[in-house]
Amino acid sequence: MKKYRAVIHLTEMERANLALNNVANLLNDLGEEETEVEVVANSEGVRALSKAGPFVERIGELARRGTRFVVCARSLAALGMKEEEFVEEVEVVPTGTGELVKRETEGWAYVRP
Amino acid sequence: MKKYRAVIHLTEMERANLALNNVANLLNDLGEEETEVEVVANSEGVRALSKAGPFVERIGELARRGTRFVVCARSLAALGMKEEEFVEEVEVVPTGTGELVKRETEGWAYVRP
Amino acid sequence: MKKYRAVIHLTEMERANLALNNVANLLNDLGEEETEVEVVANSEGVRALSKAGPFVERIGELARRGTRFVVCARSLAALGMKEEEFVEEVEVVPTGTGELVKRETEGWAYVRP
């Protein structure tokens, strides 16, 4: 288990750029050997992880540094989006809120950019 | 003590619909026998729990599933609102921030929709 | 170690007034002998802690009650701001997100006004 573990809650498309900056800063500041990060996107925030979005390269780069990206299946259904529309590093979880609560219950820190 | 405990911070009226969706998703995903949820409303977010608001039925339904709803007394005073204006399931706490910090100190997860 | 410890995440200038109200409410509600508070500002939120901003007096007052105020060095660089532009009680940390994750890992509660 790494020393630092953090979930980053991405729930507003317009805050996605900031959220990805925050992840990179976190890995640089605390050290990626010491730090495990998971980005949990729900509601409109899931759009930021789409293949059609502007962040494909940055998501790939952060994934190569060990960051996990997940999207909420309920949000996908509500927005009429399909798993294939997302960057390949992205995984689907049953609900974003459930994922956040499970991680925090395991001791992960929560940050909402 | 339930396996999962979460405070949902409702501080923006325009995010209330999402917050209530998040609560329902959480109960469905993690199971309501396993999950205790408290919605803590402060600032403009308290308006969402008013009898005059659009969420009366959904609040009642979530309360019947065990969700607790609380509003910040300081926010009520600042907005000139009275306890009687809120849905009957709603309780008043001295401050929303104090309530959140107390719950988190007890180990509850925090989610800010 | 105090009974309650909380980081307040200030990341939007327009929510700074609310964030400072939340800090004062928290100290009043839980008692300042029992409560340690740190305000972590990043992104546009750092502007609220500037000497040129409208909150100089309130920051000083909360600092005298024991609240720590920190700003993210990466955000300062991105905004072209210098440490001297901030209220004297403000300290610079390498990253706001790193500071939040460190504090939460130490057991501090997180609130995002």
TrEMBL record, chains A, B, C:
InterPro entries: DsrEFH-like, Sulphur_relay_DsrE/F-like. Pfam families: DsrE. It comes from the Archaea. This is DsrE family protein. It comes from Candidatus Methanocrinis natronophilus.
